[in-house]
């Protein structure tokens, strides 16, 4: 064999054994719910095929509060083991110092995604993360049960309580002892902060902390909102709702044991699967308002950031761009009803046909209520913990709404520590 042929053979073996010269093994950490993990893995296989890189998935508990704690530990240690983090929309101000500035790599991001989401991920002029999908919750309702009992879709929380009570009473009298009126996320974690924000804001009670940094939590409208929510426990909502997160709520709903459910759009596609008792029997609408108020939906969503401690930053950025691309967001929308962060996809006919919930939610996203992470900055996690503790105590009957909100105001004032956050 000639020297030339020997060299060609060696190069071929090297390519087979080691892949492209710039191939890297990178990791992404996620705390997925529902079918998210399976869909992510499918998209990662496509990325690996196109890029030559390999991707390792690190999973965490679904609770966003537990994820935040774990992420902060890894980042404080400067760990290079995680290259890409999937982060909650509210974490950017708290974790910004640990992420690569993506703005030089995607200078047109603001024109491709909802402006409010890009702004939420921009800290001191640096784009900390790119949006993977957005979230804004819906009120799911059993269309068949409302029609059967001649009820209208409730526009207020008070109407929801009344409709749910009447339907549950009638259905239980007919023999369905497992039916409840309303399920939501009542456990003591970030999800309860989101629910409470919607209840209070929709009653005109403010957003806990306003844009100017003022604390607005202790007022008659906020008290009314939490008193209303407390009245649901043990009446239209099971006492077990005090330990429910998203998946526990969906479990009760999808087995046909709830008239109403508050949940994120991911539950829409799952509720329409062949193994779902409620398939074809439900619809969604905007969340109810308080008396004299307006509907308020918490702005949620998940974004992808590249760790500044990563040894493979270029490959990690390539992965982030792939998973936040128009094609990847469309796949995610079609398969799991995850809301795109790209406005153009809300006019996509394939998405409108397969997931009619998505076009409806463009206006909701444009007017969603943000949690005050941009105001309280690095103190957000402690802020939210104090909020969900006060709200959970109220729901559980440990103190009145007025007493708990008054104490919360004192705690938040102490946390603020001065005239500004």
Kindly summarize this structure in a few lines.
The chain has 421 residues and is of the alpha/beta class.
Which helices and strands occur, and which strands form pairs?
Layout: H1 3-18, E1 25-30, H2 36-51, E2 54-59, H3 64-76, E3 84-88, H4 92-95, H5 109-112, H6 115-120, E4 122-123, E5 126-127, E6 130-135, E7 138-142, H7 143-148, H8 157-173, E8 180-183, H9 190-202, H10 220-232, H11 246-254, E9 258-263, H12 266-271, E10 282-285, E11 300-306, H13 313-323, H14 326-336, H15 349-354, H16 357-360, H17 362-366, H18 373-376, H19 380-395, H20 401-416
Parallel strand pairs: 1-2, 1-3, 8-9
Antiparallel strand pairs: 3-11, 4-5, 6-11, 7-9, 7-10
Explained architecture:
There is one protein chain. This protein is of the alpha/beta class. It has two domains: 3-136 and 299-366, D-Maltodextrin-Binding Protein, domain 2, CATH 3.40.190.10; 138-298 and 371-416, Periplasmic binding protein-like II (D-Maltodextrin-Binding Protein, domain 2), CATH 3.40.190. It has 20 helices and eleven strands. Strands 2-1-3-11-6 form a five-stranded mixed sheet. Helix 9 packs across helix 10. The longest helix has 17 residues, at 157-173. The N and C termini lie far apart (74 Å). Residues 1-21 have low confidence and may be disordered.
Percent helix among the residues? 40-55%
Under CATH, the topology of the largest domain can be stated as D-Maltodextrin-Binding Protein, domain 2
Summed up, the helix count is: 20
Instruction: Give the count of structural domains.
Output: 2
Q: What average pLDDT do the residues reach?
A: 92
Low-confidence stretches: 1-21
Strand order of the largest sheet: 2-1-3-11-6
Distance between the termini: 74 Å
Strand content: 5-15%
């Amino acid at each position: 064999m000639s020297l030339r042929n020997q060299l060609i053979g060696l190069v071929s073996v090297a390519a087979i054994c080691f892949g492209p010269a710039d191939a890297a093994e990178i990791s992404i950490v996620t705390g997925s719910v529902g079918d998210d993990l399976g869909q992510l893995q499918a998209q990662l296989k496509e990325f690996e095929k196109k890029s030559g890189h390999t991707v390792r998935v690190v999973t965490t508990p679904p609770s966003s509060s537990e994820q935040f704690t774990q992420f902060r530990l890894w980042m404080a240690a400067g760990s290079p083991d995680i290259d890409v983090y999937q982060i909650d929309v509210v974490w950017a101000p708290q974790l910004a110092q640990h992420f690569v500035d993506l703005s030089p790599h995607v200078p047109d991001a603001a024109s491709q995604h909802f402006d409010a989401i890009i702004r939420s991920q921009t800290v001191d002029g640096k784009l900390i993360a790119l949006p993977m999908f957005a979230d804004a919750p819906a009120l799911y309702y059993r269309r068949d049960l409302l029609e059967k009992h001649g009820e209208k879709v409730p526009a207020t929380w008070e109407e929801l309580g009344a409709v749910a009570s009447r339907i549950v009473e009638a259905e239980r009298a007919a023999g369905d002892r497992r039916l409840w009126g309303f399920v939501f996320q009542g456990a003591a974690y970030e999800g309860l902060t989101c629910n409470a924000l919607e209840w209070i804001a929709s009653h005109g009670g403010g957003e806990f902390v306003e844009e100017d940094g003022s604390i607005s939590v202790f007022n008659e409208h906020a008290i009314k909102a939490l008193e209303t929510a407390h009245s649901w426990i043990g009446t239209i909502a099971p006492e077990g709702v005090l330990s429910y997160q998203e998946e526990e709520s969906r479990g009760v709903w999808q087995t046909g044991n709830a008239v109403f459910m508050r949940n994120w759009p991911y539950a829409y596609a799952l509720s329409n699967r062949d193994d779902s008792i409620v398939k074809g029997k439900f619809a969604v609408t905007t969340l109810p308002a308080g008396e004299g108020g307006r509907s308020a939906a918490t702005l949620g969503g998940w974004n992808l950031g590249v760790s500044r401690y990563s040894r493979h930053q270029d490959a990690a950025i390539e992965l982030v761009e792939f998973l936040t691309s128009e094609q990847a967001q469309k796949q995610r929308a079609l398969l799991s009803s995850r809301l795109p962060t790209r406005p153009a996809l809300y006019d996509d006919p394939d998405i409108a046909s397969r997931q009619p919930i998505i076009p409806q939610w463009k206006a909701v996203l444009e007017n969603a209520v943000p949690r005050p992470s941009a105001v309280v900055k690095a103190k957000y996690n402690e802020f939210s913990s104090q909020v969900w503790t006060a709200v959970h105590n109220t729901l559980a009957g440990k103190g009145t709404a007025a007493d708990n909100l008054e104490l919360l105001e004192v705690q938040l004032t102490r946390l603020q520590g001065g005239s500004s956050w």
